[in-house]
Amino acid sequence: MSGFAAPVLGTVVLFGLSATLAVSLAFLLAAGSLGRSRPARAGAQTLITLTRGVPTSLLVVAAGVGVIGHPPPAWLPSPFPGTSAGMALVAWAVTIGLAFGSTGHFAVIFRTGYHAISPARREQVAVLGLGRARRLRLLVGEAAESTLAPFGARLVHHLHNTAFAALFPVADLLGWVQQRASETFLVSRYVAIGVAVYVILSFLVWAVCRGIEYRIAHRATPGLRPLSRVAT
Amino acid sequence: MSDLLWNLLFGLPDQRPGGLLLSVLSAVAAGVAAVLVGLVYATVCVARPAISLCLQAPLAILRGTPLLLLIFALAQVTGLPLVLTGFLALTLYSLSHVGETLRSYLAAYPRGLREQARLLTLSPVQEWLRLRVPWTFRRSVDALGTHWVSLLKDTGALTILGIGELTTVARMLGEHATTSRWALVLGTASALYLAAVLVLMRLLAFLKVRLTGREAQLT
Fold first, then answer.
1. Topology annotation, domain B2-214
2. pLDDT at B1 over 80
3. Do A55 and B68 touch (CB under 8 A)?
4. A184 and chain B: CB distance < 8 Å anywhere?
5. CB A7 within 8 Å of CB A83
6. Is the N end or the C end of chain A the one with fewer CB atoms within 10 Å?
7. Cα–chain-centroid distance for residue B42?
8. CATH number of A5-231
């Protein structure tokens, strides 16, 4: 079990950073594809199609292979536990590849959630006289109920995709399982540990999403309640 | 350029069939096998709800396991040839998703249709084959289609076995290339995946129209 914490943390950090980046980009792409400007819509739609059509494996391979021969710049932070400082650039490239692999899927989920809000409800939000941030929060709250289930499912898929980091010298859980299995020949034991940790992490992601879903449905703060409860 | 395209489409000279052809063949074979086994699984779950939990639990664990880990585990444990290991891993992975989809739709089969089958004096096997299975497929084609698109892209995970499907070929050709050559290799591989996914989506849309039209004729 030596060195077990670092690869698990490595997976968690890879997941956290890449998921945050993917969700941020997805927001931008979803907003772009819903915007008034035709070039912005076309650009956003092209990027969504590209990132949904190309496998994450290829994106990660492309990112990793592209930078593996280059040393990391001195200013680049290395928040990846268990990964050597010399591989920080590869780890960041893998993170970006993983993020692109999910961006299009998240963008479509967000856009579908927006479309699930009826036009009358959207107009209500527009005429409430709220600031842009407050309006966005209301719309997010309104769309969240229909969005969180597919969002959670995609997050779990995203967590599983972090295993592609094992293709490079970046510390992650699958890499640890492979290494320990080949060092000790106790394949079943280390595979079972790997499966157990991935299942637990997947369950945690699912539970957090369900918790947020529950909180949104039962929120008591008037300003943050879904619009269906504010407006009626 | 034509050599590159040829290698990406059909694999490296010593690893044919490979490339996109192997990716598509793997996805089709695993998808078909998963649907066939999934139908048996769904039938057992619907016919014998008491034992369905014993079947659903392993499938739930399988769904929580990354495909890469599954491939690695099977490669280490089974000792099968690598292509067969990849096929088995993709089938199990696909089954964990398809099985549940088919089970839920098979369970949702309407009571009215069951009564119609009784009036037509169809045996339970005839009803299953001629009414229930086609109805389940018509209803689940959207969900199955989404999964098949995902499965085609997930064949990229077979790169961990190094069996020469599209991602592996792109990786091998890109590893020791110059930056411009690397961009060309990976850009072409991405375009091939994208084209394959778009063709599959068109086929699924066509299949959906056919199935919906057939259902409209029947009703």
1. MetI-like fold (1.10.3720)
2. no
3. no
4. no
5. no
6. C
7. 16
8. 1.10.3720.10
